[in-house]
Amino acid sequence: MTFPRMALGLGLAAAAFLSSARAEGDPAVSLPTDQETWKKLPEVASGGGGPLPVWAKAVATRLPRTAAAMLELDFAQRTKSPVDPKLRAAMRWVIAHQNHCPYSEAYALADARRAGMDEATVKAVTGDPSGWPAEYRDALEFARLHTVDAPSIPDALFAKLVAKYGEKQAAAMVLLGAYGNFQDRVVLGLNLPGESGAPLEPIAVKFAPGAFQSTPVLPPQAELKPLKDDGATVVDRDPEWSELSYDALQSRLETQRARKPRLPVPTWDEVKKGLPPEFAQRPTRIVWNLVCSGYVPELALPWSRATRTMWAEAKPDRVFEESLFWVQTRAIRCNYCMGHCEMLLEVAGLDKGAIAERTRRLAGDDWSAFPPEEQRAYAYARKLTKAPWTVTPGEYKALEADLGPDAAMATFWWLCRGLYMTRVSDGFALPLERENVFMDFYGPNGPKTK
């Protein structure tokens, strides 16, 4: 089966936009052809064989199972969202525009026109915010704030979305913002060009059973590298970074524990009714999971499947990856996810003293306690998080030189994933759990690596 491009009338307009979306310079990774990529991907049950988006080809060079899961995730986001397709496309354009990502802007406009958006509305959506269509304005302002400063979203704005669209659609808007910030960083961080011709329609492919990891998996922890007392800082110091002290950050975590969420948190018994068996095997108290899977499982489950597949495929160093995620949460002030980093460091084997020492060092602008390659990765994480459009292919290649090509791609994907996780947490204003809820899921009696 092949996959059609956009209808001719839409395709010519979209192609013009996509031609302007071409990245300057070479991509950070060598891109295989469509045919070469299909051979790398897992066995296909239905569909397959047609043109592929450039981000799938890039990720498949090192993480083919994860790339396949991303295709199913993209299809879900673009075809199964309860949000009106025209409004969804308009919101996706705003997200891409704030991220300075012409590639995703082109795809959003193609989806908008395919859904029937007229050119006057396209012009209004892509123009000055003061001229946004009145019926879209609150949703587009939410998409903008969700991208540029998610912790600042007013509760009143989200309440307007719930009143107008209902809880399920409002929840889907949060997951859309999360997905857009993830996908834009994949494209920008790897300096990926637009495909030739018009943007592709969503890829309707199903992979054979066993392609993905749906049940929870816990990679083994690599031997921990001790913090150094005599190391040297090899990255530029950022005095602003340490203006917010470790103690102040801990105080923010306590405030987050008392936060009232923007939507009621479903119980596990309510959530599991809508889950397939592989996702319902083990109860969870993780608020993030309960809210996402409880309100929009059609979008939440493909994301969980992609992240679990990446963990199973890459088997990363959990202390290193949670340290990277901690840097991201500090960069964009996501208190909920910062608290989860500390919980997951405990799951990885660190005691509370070691967690406090590690995160205290990360909170300062002197990272000399960490190996040089980790310092450079933390600096890269901070930059990709705050300004992905400024990341260069050379910086990704430096990550490859430090970590190796396979670990570099897994680390990069993990960092892009961090922007999904934080956007969900801040979009819903989730309250931080007081107990380590990951011990239920990944503790001594939890799942092991397969």
Quickly list its features.
AhpD-like; 21 helices; mainly alpha; 450 residues
Overall description:
The chain is mainly α and 450 residues long. The protein folds into two domains: 8-207, AhpD-like (Up-down Bundle), CATH 1.20.1290; 239-442, AhpD-like (Up-down Bundle), CATH 1.20.1290. Helix content is 58%, strand content 1%. The chain has helices spanning 8-19, 34-40, 54-60, 64-79, 85-98, 102-114, 119-125, 137-148, 155-165, 167-189, 246-257, 268-272, 287-295, 297-314, 318-332, 335-347, 352-363, 372-386, 393-403, 405-428, 438-442; strands spanning 44-46, 206-207. The protein has a two-stranded antiparallel ribbon with strand order 1-2. Helix 5 packs parallel to helix 8 (137-148) and helix 9 crosses helix 10 (167-189). The protein is globular and about 60 Å long. It starts with 7 loop residues before the first helix and ends in an 8-residue tail after the last helix. Residues 1-22 have low confidence and may be disordered.
Question: Under CATH, the topology of the largest domain is which?
Answer: AhpD-like
Which structural class best describes the helix and strand composition?
mainly alpha
Output the radius of gyration.
21 Å
Query: How does the overall form come out from the CA principal axes?
Result: globular
| CATH class category label of the largest domain | Mainly Alpha
Total domains: 2
Q: Give me the count of strands.
A: 2
Strand order of the largest sheet: 1-2
Helix percent reads 55-70%
Name the beta content range. Answer: under 5%
Order of helices and strands: HHEHHHHHHHHEHHHHHHHHHHH
Mean pLDDT: 93
> CATH superfamily name of the largest domain?
AhpD-like
The major β-sheet equals: 2 strands, antiparallel
State the separation between the terminal residues, measured CA to CA: 33 Å
CATH architectural grouping of the largest domain: Up-down Bundle
